[in-house]
Amino acid sequence: MPPGQNKQHGRRSSTIRDVAALAGVSKSTASRAVAGQGGVSAENLEKILKAIEQLDFVPNQIARSLTARSSAVLGLFLRHTRAPFYAHLAGAFEESAAVKGYEVMSLASGDQPDEANYRSLMLMADLHTAGIVVATPNVDPRTIRQVASRVPLVLASQMGQPSNPGVPFVAPDPRDGGHLIEHLAGLGHTAIAVLALPAQHAPTQWARISWMRDELTRRGMLAGFEWIEPDQDLTEIVDSLYRSGATAIMAPSDWVAFDVLSATDRLGLSVPGDLSVTGYDGVPPFDHSVFGLTTYRIPVDEMAAAALKLLDDLIHDNPIGTSGVLLHGEMIVGRTTGPVPARKVADRIS
């Protein structure tokens, strides 16, 4: 029985040498056929294809990329793999890359110290990846600069770094938070509170939140601004904001919006009867109507496609004509926002 057909545990996988031996050709001829490089006669190609089928041979893409003149493997460096946003981004990027004939190798930072980020990114570079997309904001600019000097690199889901103006980026437009402000203003809200995670935790998110805070201040509608920590119990903060007169709370993400909703439930407050709540991100599954969350959807699919296009242009030395791309998403209006409560209107008039 040919080696590739034996599925018993412990049997080695078939190699290109096995394919060549079974087909009765040289290893170099078999390698050219597998790589699609041409120079193989129709007769030999038929023998090699039959041998591949018999042996159940699967070429090692990463090993091929180490010796190939031009790698077909891209690196994707994510912040997390467990968060829906990054999982969606990874899937969308892999789909876009496949259309261009690329395979994708993904690694995650997990908010480790930058030394670990440096090792991970250098590993990708050492594996001769054609290019790398960095989709985590916690990589030191010096590391980005060092890696970008070795391999084409694009930042995704984050604004450009002032110290690395030559590294292109793709990010959601931070001014899109204005759509949520307009929505709440249209419902009569003039006392809107904003929650924010530390800037170092989410720099791109902070760019959006700080813009929303400044815009609400400009309009005279900011009823409170509170720093929070990831996974913090928000009961006391929500209670304080509600008692101080806020009629709506804008959360920096859908995750935090659900924490706000949990707090209102513990406080016995009705949403949107007593308090309106908005999120941000709008990625599956949180955009489902069963949740009913009013949020703003970040265009993750478009972001992945734009990052792939920038990277592909860099790989092929095409002029990119831009230092960065800002993308617009769309509003999702759900059940968590409504008109200002009647008693709040009466209090305001009196």
Q: What keywords describe this structure?
A:
single chain; 350 residues; alpha/beta; 434 Repressor (Amino-terminal Domain); Rossmann fold; 3 domains; six-stranded parallel β-sheet; four-stranded parallel β-sheet; 13 helices
Molecular structure report:
This protein has 350 residues and is of the alpha/beta class. The protein has three domains: 3-59, 434 Repressor (Amino-terminal Domain) (Orthogonal Bundle), CATH 1.10.260; 73-167 and 300-328, Response regulator (Rossmann fold, 3-Layer(aba) Sandwich), CATH 3.40.50; 174-294 and 333-349, Rossmann fold, CATH 3.40.50. It is 43% helix and 15% strand. The chain has 13 helices and twelve strands. The chain has helices at 16-23, 27-35, 42-55, 61-67, 84-99, 114-126, 141-148, 177-186, 203-219, 235-243, 254-267, 300-315, 342-349; strands at residues 73-78, 103-108, 131-135, 153-156, 169-172, 192-196, 222-227, 248-250, 276-278, 295-297, 324-327, 330-332. The strands form three sheets. It has a six-stranded parallel sheet, sandwiched between helices. The chain has a four-stranded parallel sheet with strand order 7-6-8-9, with helices on both faces. Strands 10-12 form a two-stranded antiparallel sheet. The longest helix has 17 residues, at 203-219. The radius of gyration is 26 Å and the shape is elongated. Mean pLDDT is 87; it is low at 1-10 and 65-70.
